[in-house]
Amino acid sequence: MNSMEERDPDQEEPQTTDPNERIILIHPLAQGMVVIEGATSLESLLRDMGNKYGQPPASKASIEAMPRVEIGEDNKDGECAICLEEWESSAIVRKMTCKHRFHGNCVEKWLKIHGNCPVCRYEMPVDDEELGKKRDGGDEGREWRRTEREIWVSFAFNGNRRNGDSNENPSSDSADFSPSSPSATDYETES
Amino acid sequence: MIDFARVQKELQECSRDVEASGIKVAPKSDNLGRLTGTIPGPVGTPYEGGTFQIDITLPDGYPFEPPKMQFATKVWHPNISSQSGAICLDILKDQWSPALTLKTALLSVQALLSTPEPGDPQDAVVAQQYLRDYQTFVGTARYWTETFAKTSSLGVEEKVQKLVEMGFPEALARSALESVGGDENLALEKLCSG
Ligand SMILES: [Zn+2]
Ligand SMILES: [Zn+2]
């Protein structure tokens, strides 16, 4: 990485593609490759990947800890945002930390899939044990995400430097990558 | 199991404010698992004036799983496949919430038409064009809107009249138009073929 940083760009092989404009992700297990051209923000890419599988399920304890509240005459306006049934007074419902209320059945079903509030996305505590189990137990999705992150870091050094240099607006002056231009040197792998 | 009671409520709510939102949702059959959404192209975009149909399939887990949505009308947009109509939109994937509805999801799709995100493309060719030659992109998108998303401005009666003038019996013309959803070209094809 350091040697790349110090190299004069003029001395690079002419067909080498600027890594700032083309990001290649390789999945070592599936031998799959993702080429992202014109990617301008490393951070946004990383953020997107982190969100790829949505919020993990809420912990059992946190679901059980949600208070049960009664719908009273003064607060019976509105509906359960999950089943769209209007509140009936004196019904017992569950109240999340963010104050949003849902039928117990409705919200528990959701929180076991994704641990956030359906209305405001307030995030519930995640069961660490569950997460660990999934990761070690070969949950492919998570494994894949972690691998991508590692590869990503290996590109970040180049990308950041060039970003700082001159490329404030890569979309307006991007080099042309015609299908014929890629060569072996483009396909950097994790090193 | 799809929560059909909720889907029914959604359809009622949606038809109540169709005037304000311009968003329509109608079942394709009577099982409510397959529907068609309709959104007007946003004003001030290359999609303005177009009417876009979206195929909706509800998964068994709806509303705990997102509805599957895909453009049935061809559209030229970085985040929509120009081939299949597949939509790249986070709320239809990992950012779905059961508090969203078919209407709010369609509103998001409509918003996507206004604010393309070429950095997260569904159609790489369109995204490249958007980034490198914006004027050509706008031209192509507008042309596709004109070609694929504009139903004729003629009313039903005028269409029937047109077909009658071509020599088809009125009742036949009317039923042909109905069977193809009002598109006079398709109706003509149908009349000619059988
Ligand atoms: Zn409910
Ligand atoms: Zn909330």
From TrEMBL, chain A:
Reactions it catalyzes: S-ubiquitinyl-[E2 ubiquitin-conjugating enzyme]-L-cysteine + [acceptor protein]-L-lysine = [E2 ubiquitin-conjugating enzyme]-L-cysteine + N(6)-ubiquitinyl-[acceptor protein]-L-lysine
GO CC annotation: cytoplasm
The keyword Nucleus appears for this protein: no
Keywords tagged on the record: Metal-binding, Transferase, Ubl conjugation pathway, Zinc, Zinc-finger
GO biological process: protein ubiquitination
Example GO molecular function: zinc ion binding
Region of interest: Disordered: 1-20, 158-191
Keyword Zinc attached: yes
Alphabetical list of CDD domains matching this protein: RING-H2_PA-TM-RING
Segments of skewed composition (Low complexity): 170-184
Start and end residues of each RING-type domain: 80-121
InterPro entries the record matches: Znf_RING, Znf_RING/FYVE/PHD
Stored PANTHER family: E3 UBIQUITIN-PROTEIN LIGASE MPSR1 (PTHR15710:SF132), E3 UBIQUITIN-PROTEIN LIGASE PRAJA (PTHR15710)
Full protein name: RING-type E3 ubiquitin transferase
Annotated source species: Salix brachista
From TrEMBL, chain B:
Residues annotated as domain UBA: 155-194
SUPFAM superfamilies: UBA-like, UBC-like
Top-rank lineage group of the source organism: Eukaryota
InterPro entries in alphabetical order: UBA, UBA-like_sf, UBC, UBC27_UBA, UBQ-conjugating_AS, UBQ-conjugating_enzyme/RWD
Broad EC category: transferase
Active site: C88 (glycyl thioester intermediate)
Coiled-coil intervals, chain numbering: none
EC number(s) given by UniProt: 2.3.2.23
Keyword Transferase in record: yes
Domain UBC core: 2-150
SMART domains: UBA, UBCc
Keywords: ATP-binding, Nucleotide-binding, Transferase, Ubl conjugation pathway
Any one GO molecular function term: ATP binding
PROSITE patterns found in the cross-reference section: UBA, UBC_1, UBC_2
Similarity remark: Belongs to the ubiquitin-conjugating enzyme family.
Name assigned to this protein: E2 ubiquitin-conjugating enzyme
Species this protein is from: Salix brachista
